[in-house]
Amino acid sequence: xxxxxxxxxxxxxxxxxxxxxxxxxxxxxxxxxxxxxxxxxxxxxxxxxxxxxxxxxxxxxxxxxxxxxxxxxxxxxxxxxxxxxxxxxxxxxxxxxxxxxxxxxxxxxxxxxxxxxxxxxxxxxxxxxxxxxxxxxxxxxxxxxxxxxxxxxxxxxxxxxxxxxxxxxxxxxxxxxxxx
Length: 180
Description:
Layout: H1 2-9, H2 13-23, H3 29-56, H4 72-88, H5 92-104, H6 110-122, H7 126-136, H8 142-169
Helix pairs in contact: 1-2, 2-3, 3-5, 4-5, 4-6, 5-6, 6-7, 7-8
């Protein structure tokens, strides 16, 4: 427990949470209870940090209001829902900021990375988005691999179309990609 708090002090929350997660299986009930409480505190702190970040951007996070999260796993779905809502409203920057802050605090999942990629697309940062989706091609969940593959095809198709339009506007053509 002390080692985990030292890691938190060094800004290495993910490692600290890993230690506390290990302690959840410890035979000593006191250590298990303390580890659970420490995880709850860290997740509550992250929740508050994201709410403040949203408020600074002129938004609210109703997905987080009135909820207490005991583990990071409980945190993922409301985070993704908030991200999608913000992106749908045109606030890709704040959506990405929330997701990135959560990732920095140890929230990692394919669903979070997929949403980060869509926020990047909304900001015109397709190459970074494609990098995230390429990483998801190796994900353990087949559904996420399929989504990543579909999204990569979609973006590649859009880029090909833009390239053809640019070439045609300049009086050129590239037969190799036309019709793909």
